[in-house]
């Protein structure tokens, strides 16, 4: 496994690859969710590249960029056994040199949900992912369903900009008690960690109604809010029952649907979702 920083080294390695290339973009502090993406990339592609870059432009001014967990040594020891060919760890100066002024922005689909709470977030995500696609030129790129809106936005960008990249979205990996794995779970302590299962419980309760035949989206949103309200430590930011592709809120569920939510537990912001249909 080769670990590199510079763009020239990346391009030289990319040129030496024969066959297909799979890219797993990450911000490091890897967990089992990332490892499941890497395993799938390994199974599907001749060459696997993992990028580790805590992308400053996707953090809002009041967000946790400086506190975002980092541990490169630990990340490399987790990746090593998985048969990854190349780990690329560019610096902020490589990705955003002095005088940087070019951005990739996706419109309508970035506005609701996460976009309504974090107005500059997706501009940072799409810009960095476009730059990663340009640099690595992968055939396939792997993202987690946990960040459902991010996956939808990246699919849209890939279509709109004609990137010849197959965007693969992999199922959310959960702890035994249902909490979706996330690098930010590290911030959850004591009672907040226990309370964090309320997201999974709320989504499960709404899914149970759906499986019993309920198709009124308002009823499902109401059920999720009711379960979240039963946990006094949780502050709800949004609860949604939306069309899976457009992310528009639904009145009546017809096709593939995204149930999603963002909840604060203390200072830790958690998101989670289920796909129906
Ligand atoms: O999901 C993430 O970790 C990041 O948003 C991504 C896709 C690596 C872009 O920085």
What do you see in this structure?
There is one protein chain. The chain is α/β, with parallel strands linked by helices and 277 residues long. It folds into 2 domains: 2-170, 3-Layer(aba) Sandwich (Rossmann fold); 183-276, 2-Layer Sandwich (Pantoate--beta-alanine Ligase, Chain: A,domain 2), CATH 3.30.1300.10. It contains 10 helices and 9 strands. The strands form 2 sheets. A 6-stranded parallel sheet has the order 1-4-3-2-5-6, sandwiched between helices. Helix 6 crosses helix 7 and helix 9 (198-211) runs antiparallel to helix 10 (217-229). The chain is globular. The mean pLDDT is 97. Bound molecules: pantoate. Pantoate (PAF) binds next to strand 2 and helix 6. Pantoate (PAF) is lined by residues 25-27, 55, 58, 125, 128-129, 147, 150.
Number of distinct helices = 10
The fold-level CATH name of the largest domain is Rossmann fold
* Largest beta-sheet details: 6 strands, parallel
CATH architecture of the largest domain: 3-Layer(aba) Sandwich
Structural class: alpha/beta
In N-to-C order, the SSE pattern is: EHEHEHEHHHEHEHHHEEE
Task: Please identify which CATH superfamily of the largest domain we are dealing with.
Answer: HUPs
Helix content: 25-40%
Query: Uncertain segments of ≥5 residues (pLDDT<50)?
Result: none
Strand order of the largest sheet: 1-4-3-2-5-6
The total number of structural domains is 2
Whole-number average pLDDT? 97
Gyration radius over CA: 19 Å
Total count of strands? 9
Shape: globular
Bound ligand species: pantoate
N-end to C-end Cα span: 40 Å
Share of residues in strands: 15-25%
CATH class label of the largest domain: Alpha Beta
């Amino acid at each position: 496994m080769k670990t590199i920083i510079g763009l020239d080294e990346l391009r030289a390695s990319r040129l030496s690859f024969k066959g297909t290339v799979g890219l797993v973009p990450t911000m490091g502090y890897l967990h089992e969710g990332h490892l499941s993406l890497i395993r799938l990339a390994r199974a599907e592609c001749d060459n696997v590249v993992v990028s580790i870059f805590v992308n400053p432009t996707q953090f809002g001014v009041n967000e946790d960029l400086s506190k975002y967990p980092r541990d490169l040594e630990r990340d490399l020891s987790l990746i090593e056994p998985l048969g990854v060919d190349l780990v690329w760890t560019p610096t902020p100066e490589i990705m955003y040199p002095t005088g940087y002024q070019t951005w990739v922005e996706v419109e309508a689909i970035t506005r609701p949900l996460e976009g309504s709470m974090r107005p500059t977030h997706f501009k940072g995500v799409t810009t960095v992912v476009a730059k990663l696609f340009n640099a690595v030129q992968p055939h396939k790129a792997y993202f987690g369903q946990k960040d459902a809106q991010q996956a939808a936005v990246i699919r849209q960008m890939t279509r709109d900009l004609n990137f010849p990249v197959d965007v693969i979205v992999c199922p959310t990996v959960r702890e035994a008690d249902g909490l979706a794995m996330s690098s930010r779970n590290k911030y959850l302590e004591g009672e907040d960690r226990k309370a964090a299962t309320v997201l999974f419980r709320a989504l499960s309760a709404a899914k149970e109604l759906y499986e019993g035949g309920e198709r009124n989206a308002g009823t499902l949103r109401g059920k999720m809010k009711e379960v979240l309200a039963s946990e006094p430590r949780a502050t709800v930011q949004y609860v949604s029952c939306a069309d899976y592709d457009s992310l528009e809120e639904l009145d009546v569920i017809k096709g593939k649907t995204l149930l999603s939510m963002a909840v604060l537990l203390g200072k830790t912001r958690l998101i989670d979702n289920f796909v129906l249909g």
